[in-house]
Amino acid sequence: MGAGVVALYVLTLWAPGLFLGGLAGLRGWTLAASAPLLTYAVAGLFGPIFAALGIAWSPTSAGLLLVVLCAVAVLVRFAIRQRFGPADRTGTPVWSLSTHAVVVAALAWIVVLGGTVIWSGLGQLTAIPQDWDAAFHANGIRWIADTGDSSLVGMAKVNWYEDEVEVFYPNAYHLLAAVILRITGADVPTVLNAHTVLLPGMGALAIVALVHRFGGRAVLAVASAGCSIAITSFYDMLWRGPLLPFVTGAVLVPLAAVLLVDVLDAHGRRQIGRGLLFGSGLLGMIALNPATLFTAAVFAMPAVVQRWAGKPRLLRREPLVVLAAGAVGAVLALPQVLGSIGSASGEPVHDWPAELTQSEAFGELLALAHDGLHPQWWLVLVTAIGIAALRRLGALRWVFASGFVFGAMFVLSASSDELWVNTITRPWWNDQWRLMGLCVVPVAVLAGHGLAELQRHAAAGVTTLADKVGAGPPVLARNAATAVATTLVLALFVVASEDLYLGRNVARMRLSAPDGPVVTSLEADAMRVLATLVPPDQRVMNDRGDGSVWMYAIAGVHPVAGFYNFSGIGEDALMLNTRFNRYPVDRSVRAAVARLNISYVMLGRGFVRTDWRRAPGLLGLEDAPWLQAVYRNKDAVIYRIRARPG
């Protein structure tokens, strides 16, 4: 089942984007890497439209939407070709056909290795992620699959259901996951994890597309992609949280630079088409997570600065082109933009406290050793070589500036609680883990450049030796020297880094989904028992701090507390959290129980934070005569209220 879900996810993510992107004129590595982003853009655009029109989101409606979009795209492309003729695709290829084949083979190995880290760390795809964010995403996916509600405030109703409170959250990630859930019939954790397995490979593909688009050598593309799956900070975003939509957007961020340069390099009617593609890419990013848009801006801005610094005459028109393309994205993503603004203005500012001194944070950044881990010395070494040889990075020199900004924000957020620091890092929740994770792409490219420079010097040395000994025809000797040097340098790095830090990163991913402490397999069993006891129109009283918030995702049973977050919670839910155990003697408690239609209570053993304890209103229930224990195991208990209020 697990492999089948992963395969279906690949098909669902890539097929729509490949077809639509191909019809729009994308080709090669840019098309392959952009396909998931374009698929998310389609979901992000039409999900809110379906909700506004009263159309349920389902595999059938999403499939019909895709058929209609593809038919329209074919007709538009045919009309354009009839009016203007075929597009001019002449130009010097960046890589030869055989080089493309070698990169594909190397990338396939990298994709498998990255997926192995995730899958091995999880143990099995049915494993339940234990940290904070996972429950929200899991419940949201189940909500869309069950109800067809694709609105931007729909899936939050699992937790925010009182007083007509509306909580905005972009849902492109959840819309596609809901389709997978409906088609496969798998459990929600399997759907979550099947997508997570794809993220290292998705990011590696985007880096290859970035290097190819900016004219980099194939060895740079392969080395950078390989380094991207070796950096532990990437996996720290997948066991902590896990930050699933955020990381999905983060791995696709290199495409912001790729698609933007495509716009600037195009001319005439092709620039309009490229502008629409760039706008669609921005839509896909914000529809995944609003922070992705800020990340893309920080990442891509140095690229255009370097471009304009080299050719100042481009400043006469290209800034206007960038603004126009950005405006296209803003129009396409208008519901998400407005929702993000409203959410940002209505939510209290959260400040993750600074935990390090500046020198400690700087040391962790330089050594790639966040959270007190042992430094990744081999990556540090090749990154240092890449920075030392930065001038030879050519059109990708700007990546250093992107990495510098992300790194500086990490150091600031990890070491300072100043108001101005919190302000500039607010798009990333002032979260040092996220900001360290955003350094992965720049560091990977710089480390890959270091390896590529070692390969270049090794190839030159082997070629010189071959010339001295008369090893054969110069062209053949040079090609053989390049192949030998590439194999030698990359193989030595893989061996020295112990398979690109495979064991270290698997160990980090094992922090994501052990059997507990928040949600154990026994607690999941109790939730499935609940599904046999509780009618669909009732809610189950539960503790907002324990793993029972997963009951909707796992068993389809609606809890009183559908997430750990207290912000914006209705009065009844808040009162029951503090006073439910006064049910026999407090008329207001009984009235709240009646309004929420509660007949059962479930308590789990573990809590989402180690310093959290049982909610005050749920203390002392084990001896309450007005409750009957109907199911119990060592990790969970289910009670039935003996006498329902009149």
> Gyration radius, to the nearest Å?
26 Å
From the helix content, strand content and strand pairing, which structural class follows? mainly alpha
Low-confidence stretches: none
Spatial separation of the terminal alpha carbons: 47 Å
Largest sheet: 5 strands, mixed
The total count of helices amounts to 27
Specify the helix fraction band: 55-70%
Strand content: under 5%
Mean pLDDT: 93
Gross geometry: globular
Give the number of DSSP strands. Answer: 5
The order of strands across the largest sheet is 2-1-3-5-4
Can you describe this structure?
With 646 residues, the protein is mostly helical. Helix content is 65%, strand content 4%. The chain contains 27 helices and 5 strands. The protein has helices at residues 2-23, 28-53, 59-84, 97-122, 132-147, 172-184, 188-213, 218-228, 232-239, 244-252, 254-265, 269-288, 290-310, 318-332, 334-346, 358-367, 377-388, 399-415, 419-424, 432-437, 440-469, 474-496, 498-509, 521-533, 551-555, 571-579, 587-596; strands spanning 539-542, 558-559, 598-604, 627-632, 636-641. The protein has a 5-stranded mixed β-sheet with strand order 2-1-3-5-4. A hairpin with a 3-residue loop joins strand 4 (627-632) and strand 5. Helix 16 (358-367) runs antiparallel to helix 18 and helix 21 (440-469) crosses helix 22 (474-496). It is globular and about 95 Å long.
